[in-house]
């Protein structure tokens, strides 16, 4: 079956990439599609070098920005890979030639649907988000989790014959957990809601998927912090929304900086208590301006409050949900950062009128959470164990974050900028001089450090280059070794 | 704000319902939409009687079947309700006039998107599926579950610091559970797959949602057993598929009876080992014919094997997955029936080429299962506890099913037909003479028995009337009382 390896035409061969400047499809997308299709149909082989952006721009008579944007799309989908010090190439380990997802042996090969390709996209870039090691962003510390206590809560919860909750009742949440959360949110976050308004789901990601699809139709517009959470971008992408970057500065998202030409959004995703990934707290005036803009524009705000429970110092800013009129804000949170992602319990607080339809949607989608884990969590909260755990990790995470920042500043203060984190499980550092952060992050991965390139959190073409570094689980030794490794890379190589 | 209650026009008033016989929208849908919109815009009030199908058919000059189908849609969406002995009416407890889901107090009320309305639909009919009591279809017995043993497994699993599985690794399943399932499926079901082909999800419903959307685009055609599983219908409905009923007889789904005019399907949903809800096993010849038809038509078969693990007698028929060429079949199963729905662990076996994209889709959708429950399940399977539990519930369920059938035959043999169940947690009985099974089921609900009307499992206008009765959790007393209640209803009232 193996055919002899034939020479394949280079990418610039006539007809492989052409653009229609009068066409409806944006130019970067035309270039991206042409290259993608050439790879799929095996016209371009894995390993083929891409021409420089300057050269392809000249050949096609388009701007370099256009080619840059097209290459960005190819990179995001993993069709193209970048290694430090060499030109981008068609990725080597793509599925066999012919089609990216065809099934051999079947005359009627089930391909993913067009929608399925969207669902299967990894917007982190091929391979990103599947790498593990020290410094992984988003990960809480495994060594601080109270396994014994949690195991006892689980056992106690699982010994009970809980009646119809274990069958098909209360899909949107076990009532005692909803009650605990309602009390907790009222006290800690100024979020006042009836227990049934708190829908329990299996993850922040399923909350985002559910809410984006239930509140917006394909083609609707959504605004997303720039840089921002890739999980939200993924949910919007799967929902077929038109995503617009919402500028972020040292005070978080700034609605006033949104270009006037941007389409009125149906959804606005923000992280006011601790901007992800840069860390800013949004001042009250800006929160009110955001609410007012959303109100006049008829948008719903998705407030992701994922880490307000373990800010290191001071009180978190009041949640938008509590400041807003009813129905303006959906409040989202998760136990993934405060406890463990593997627990798969998250929740969203919705307006009364959406309780019934969204509870039914949780059932129809099948994204309800494990009932025994929910019950265990309710008792863990009720006993004060959860509050004690938060206090504990706040101290440990603050110490680890501080040590990381001190070590970074001491060793690399000339090349990077970084602030002491005010909370959370990760921080972002930026470079004083532009660097290819994707290449740097890949090099760090090869050394066992799972940092992410800051540029990968941006949608638009203006990206800051830097690294997002998880510190919650980092030991002293890992911090010392990781900073050393980064220093070597910054000193020895001008990556990119 | 309260307006005086004004007289509202009757449904037959000029202009409320009109049809365009030359239009593209099917006539039943036109009628359904007209009535729905009139209810939404408060032109028709809750409680308004619908005219008889004969009368409306005459007024609109369409067939009675057309009006019947329209009423069926309204009933399924809960816009219309039927009570025994009276005409169908606009449901009384609909949300307030004006809009079905508007938010008071907000000038820019966030309505569900069009897609959101689909996601929030309850195809079981308004209120169905949220009622609880004896005889609930689909429910395993809560009194047979080994709570102590399971609680110990969970505790042991939760005490371990499991490394990155608890963070963001192995979204598509904990490896030891995938291995246990691979071994189990090979021995018990002739399903031979590598462990990584077994994707663990949070429910059968999330598997169906994921697979329908990833393999089919909106507008694609899907065939569904008639009568068939409402969960599959819901997933197809949310995916925007065009759903066609696949005829079922005493040997299960019969592809040969499919009308030649039906659009070639992208997906075919079947339950070959034990047809849901009628119970037939599909003979080998018919399974092969189904595979051949799917192969030539380029369809993917979704094989829901939800209950093959606890058939009461004999071996289950070989799974289609093992008979098929690679890529023809996706095999779906769940622990909801063999253990507990509240565990929220299910799985699907997919072809090798779909492993990577669908694993990413599980992550993007957020429908992964609780990690500690997965690990506990792996040890429960490894220790032999799962096998012992299956053997135990097989005997108990068989005894309960037999007692139910004997009692039904003894007391109601003249009015109903019912067979001894060969497996599962529920059975279907049919009436010797046509009955309004929706009205009967509602009456049973009021007496505390959560049976479902058999007609609600049908899509088309030809429905068998009967009841689906869960027996797994039924005590002797409940069986005696439930059959007595049904007998009274059948004797005293000619429901409908």
UniProtKB/TrEMBL annotation, chains A, B:
Residues 25-93 form the HTH gntR-type domain. InterPro entries: Aminotransferase_I/II_large (IPR004839), HTH_trans_reg/aminotransferase (IPR051446), PyrdxlP-dep_Trfase (IPR015424), PyrdxlP-dep_Trfase_major (IPR015421), Tscrpt_reg_HTH_GntR (IPR000524), WH-like_DNA-bd_sf (IPR036388), WH_DNA-bd_sf (IPR036390). Pfam families: Aminotran_1_2 (PF00155), GntR (PF00392). GO terms for molecular function: DNA binding; DNA-binding transcription factor activity; pyridoxal phosphate binding; transaminase activity. Keywords: Aminotransferase, DNA-binding, Pyridoxal phosphate, Transcription, Transcription regulation, Transferase. In the C-terminal section; belongs to the class-I pyridoxal-phosphate-dependent aminotransferase family. This is PLP-dependent aminotransferase family protein. It comes from Roseibium aggregatum. The lineage of its organism: Bacteria, Pseudomonadati, Pseudomonadota, Alphaproteobacteria, Hyphomicrobiales.
